[in-house]
Amino acid sequence: MKRYLILGTGEMGMQIAQLIFSSCKESKLYLFSSTGKNLDKKLNVLESSISKLAKFGKLKYSFESNDLKRVKFVSDFEIKHKPNFIFECLQEDKNEKLNALKICSNIYDSSIITTNTSSLSIDELGNSLNFPARFFGCHFFNPVMKTRFAEIIPHEKSTSENLTILKSELSLYLKDYVIINDSPGFVVNKILISMIESGIELHINEGISYEEVDRSLKFGANFIAGPFEIADLIGLDVVVKIMRNTKKMKYIDFLQERVLSNKLGKKTGIGFYTY
Q1: Omega before 83 within 30 of 0, i.e. cis
Q2: How confident is the model over 117-155, as pLDDT tens digits?
């Protein structure tokens, strides 16, 4: 049975847990939460999501209620048995991520360790770890179950053997992935942030509404969503952090005003739009 340690029980951590759980019956998931808050609620959400997937035949195995015993919430980085894979999904804060990654690197000498960062340097994070040969960026996208896609960013010292193991693992539950070099924003966010900046510029300088910008991209370029809808989905607080990490600062104050008012997008019910 494969074991997974998922660091963080926020939106992305829970979605990645659901993705793995729904794809691999022979698995044990350990979900790390530093606060221990709302864990019963989170388990209920996971159970409800899995039950819906089972009802519509979206699971890769026959689901039984006992399967939820394979999920355990932990408040310590060290678990009884070494995990095969560690997926770090903490908030987009360099120091918080690095602290957790260092601890896991010290404890586990054979686990493949990944970070779900959307914009931090993989080489810089990995250079502080004991085993950078086993370290990768693995950037999933929200909503995880729908996109089933990831950017894989090897560390400069990652081995081809470990990359093959990670690719084989991700192939179990993703539709596709790309392997790219370490650069600010990688591929998707580098383009998305530029698009969000362009949308803000049109709104500020040309007086074009959020709705008109988004409709233009959706109907004129066949986008699924426009820049303001995407920003709300990502979370405006996360967009601000990505902008800082990628040095795209032109409209950061415009977004920061909303962040300070807790208008973060879908997760708080209001951002550029009201939900």
Answers
A1: no
A2: 999 999 999 999 999 999 999 999 989 999 999 999 999
